[in-house]
Design goal:
It is built from one helix and eight strands, in the order H-E-E-E-E-E-E-E-E. It is mainly beta. It has an eight-stranded antiparallel β-barrel. The longest helix has 16 residues. The protein is elongated and about 50 Å long.
């Protein structure tokens, strides 16, 4: 019975993964708003795309001040269907958890707008230069250009 459940789980996972993308992102950018002076810092994260939905996690370390931000968002992606270079636009929302050194940590809603180009490097591998703009409590705007490298299943 266990082996049947395992085989069925593998078949279902493979079916769900068909057409899915998994990528890692690195970049950096600037942030500023009413509650802080302009600051900059590196960003790293991962994305999972399935159908037209993208689930993102992005860590952003902001300097000066040493604030750490964790963005978790779900967005809708509009992307050209054909061609080696496929432009895309994404819009969505989620949460940002901020861990400043001077204030108590907290979470708030975040809005995400982004875009870029997915460039095929082969049958399954791709590179994705992109720009993301997050709006979150403060109000604060965070602009993060980056490059993702991914694999299409």
């Amino acid at each position: 019975m266990r082996s049947a459940v395992l085989v069925l789980s593998c078949v279902l996972a493979a079916g769900c993964a068909a057409g899915a993308d998994l990528s890692v992102t690195a970049g950096g950018g600037i942030s500023g708003g009413d509650d802080q002076a302009r600051a900059s810092g590196p960003a790293v994260g991962a994305s999972f795309d399935w159908w037209r939905l993208r689930a993102d996690y992005l860590f952003n370390g902001v300097y000066p001040g040493g604030e750490r931000r964790h963005f978790a968002t779900l967005s809708w992606v509009w992307q050209a269907r054909a061609g080696r270079a496929r432009p895309f636009f994404q819009a969505g929302g989620g949460v940002v958890h901020r861990s400043p050194q001077r204030y108590p940590p907290g979470a708030s809603r975040a809005v995400l707008l982004g875009g870029g180009v997915t460039v095929a490097l082969g049958r399954s591998m791709y590179i994705r230069p992109q720009v993301r703009l997050y709006g979150h409590a403060g109000p604060t705007l965070t602009l993060l250009p980056g490059v993702a490298i991914g694999w299409r299943f």
